[in-house]
From TrEMBL:
Residues 4-118 form the Aminotransferase class I/classII large domain. This is Aminotransferase. GO terms for molecular function: pyridoxal phosphate binding; transaminase activity. It is an enzyme of class 2 (transferase).
């Protein structure tokens, strides 16, 4: 691995385990040491470690989760496009859309119990 590259994974974001405060970084020792200095101490509880170990060991579950989230992303994008929104980016678990009226879109989604984040600079 090049000395200036890290791979960082969050269980909440990559595996879809919302609320699990656990992640990891891979890279060259000097770069990881600098990252550790910047991040400071990060306590991880025992249940999170147990869940993380189980998730890492279950390749079939991880593969199934990736397929599920990929398909769900496509469905969500199709629905957004049908509303006239444009896909602006995202991951399998988080999407970014250009809506034309971000405040109206956020309010409409909130009325159906869907929480979204609207960026302060957004007017569309």
């Amino acid at each position: 691995m090049p000395e200036n590259v890290t791979i960082q994974r969050s269980f909440g974001k990559f595996w879809g385990l919302a609320g699990l405060r656990l992640g990891f970084a891979l890279g060259q020792p000097a770069l990881l040491a600098a990252l550790a200095r910047e991040a400071g101490p990060w306590a991880v509880n025992g249940p999170a470690l147990a869940i993380g170990a189980q998730a890492m060991a279950d390749e079939a579950w991880a593969d199934d989760a990736i397929v599920y989230h990929s398909e769900a992303t496509l469905r969500l994008d199709r629905l957004a496009i049908q509303r006239g929104w444009q896909v602006a980016g995202g991951t399998h678990l988080f999407r970014l859309y250009q809506t034309g009226d971000a405040e109206a879109a956020q309010n409409a989604l909130a009325r159906t119990h869907i929480w979204t984040r609207r960026f302060p600079y957004s007017t569309g």
